[in-house]
């Protein structure tokens, strides 16, 4: 099967603030030649501690931060080689869900406008009627009534807001969703509901997830494979249960050993709320 996402030899540097007026700017390398692939319908987890390069990798995959070298190919298209019009057309195929369900939704806009915005921005030929129908469909898919479209983000709980964020990611009918710590800001019981929803949506729509998290328990449940990132390098990769049950790299062993209690569960099992 041809990979939906191919990341090859990705290098990302940041320029550090100058130490003095006459000093030369220094670069900090955050990603050191990262490579990975993801097939259609698969879920790949990127796990590592804060500062390991997880979110930088996610932003680079989304086309939000251009790397110094390397390539990101989604559905056969190298996104950093595309022109503006081609990139606009390609963006329908990959969307993101971010960590903060409060900060990721504009409080000034209704849910209808929040959900319609990606369609208006990325699709040229749509009618008000077709947008309204798609809004109804994605709200229904994430377990919210059509009447939610008339409300504003402050009228919803954190879990409901994240459902709206998921609906916004779904509305362009993408093949790939990059989920950057999508449940870490939620209560544990709400995390379980959102993870179950994401697994249902993956099966319903044939989605692929690039799932970023520091939580090994979450990764155990929702991902097929996992890549462990440490100091900007992938140090171990393989089927999730195999990597966590028998970690080979010392850094992965340290991550697993740091979990207070042995976590259990298998891919595609329902997440139980406490």
From TrEMBL:
Chief localisation class: membrane
The function of this protein is: Probably part of an ABC transporter complex that could be involved in peptide import. Probably responsible for energy coupling to the transport system.
Put simply, this protein is called Peptide/nickel transport system ATP-binding protein
What sections of the sequence does the record tag as coiled-coil?
none
* Lineage top rank: taxon: Bacteria
One GO MF annotation is: ATP hydrolysis activity
The entry's localization annotation reads: Cell inner membrane
A GO biological process held by the record? transmembrane transport
Q: Describe the family membership recorded for this protein in Swiss-Prot or TrEMBL.
A: Belongs to the ABC transporter superfamily.
Which species is the source of this protein?
A: Pseudochrobactrum asaccharolyticum
Q: Topology versus the membrane, per the UniProt entry?
A: Peripheral membrane protein
Keywords, in A-Z order: ATP-binding, Cell inner membrane, Cell membrane, Membrane, Nucleotide-binding, Peptide transport, Protein transport, Translocase, Transport
Q: What GO cellular-component annotations does this UniProt entry give? A: plasma membrane
**Domain called ABC transporter: residue spans:** 5-256
Which SMART domains is this protein grouped with?
AAA (SM00382)
């Amino acid at each position: 099967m041809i990979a939906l996402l191919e990341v090859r030899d990705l290098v990302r540097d940041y320029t550090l603030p100058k130490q003095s007026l006459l000093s030369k700017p220094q670069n900090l390398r955050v990603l050191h030649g990262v490579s990975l692939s993801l097939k259609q319908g698969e879920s790949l987890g990127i796990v590592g501690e804060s500062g390991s390069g997880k979110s930088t990798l996610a932003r680079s995959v989304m086309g939000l931060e251009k790397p110094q070298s390397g390539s990101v190919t989604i559905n056969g298209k190298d996104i950093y080689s595309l022109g503006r019009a081609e990139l606009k057309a390609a963006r329908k195929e990959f969307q993101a869900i971010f960590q903060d369900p409060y900060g990721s939704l504009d409080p000034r806009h209704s849910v209808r406008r929040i959900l319609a915005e990606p369609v208006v921005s990325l699709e040229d030929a749509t009618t008000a009627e077709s947008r309204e129908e798609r809004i109804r469909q994605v709200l229904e898919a994430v377990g919210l009534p059509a009447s939610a479209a008339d409300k504003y983000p402050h009228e919803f709980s954190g879990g409901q807001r994240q459902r709206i964020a998921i609906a916004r990611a779904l509305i362009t009918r993408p093949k790939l969703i990059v989920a950057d710590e999508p449940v870490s800001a939620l209560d544990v019981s709400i995390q379980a509901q959102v993870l179950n929803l994401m697994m249902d949506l993956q099966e319903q729509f044939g989605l692929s997830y690039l799932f970023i998290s520091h939580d090994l328990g979450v990764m155990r449940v929702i991902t097929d494979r996992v890549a462990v990132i440490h100091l900007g390098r992938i140090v171990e990769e393989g089927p999730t249960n195999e990597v966590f049950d028998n970690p080979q790299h010392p850094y992965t062993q340290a991550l697993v050993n740091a979990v207070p209690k042995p976590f259990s569960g298998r891919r595609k099992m329902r997440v139980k709320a406490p």
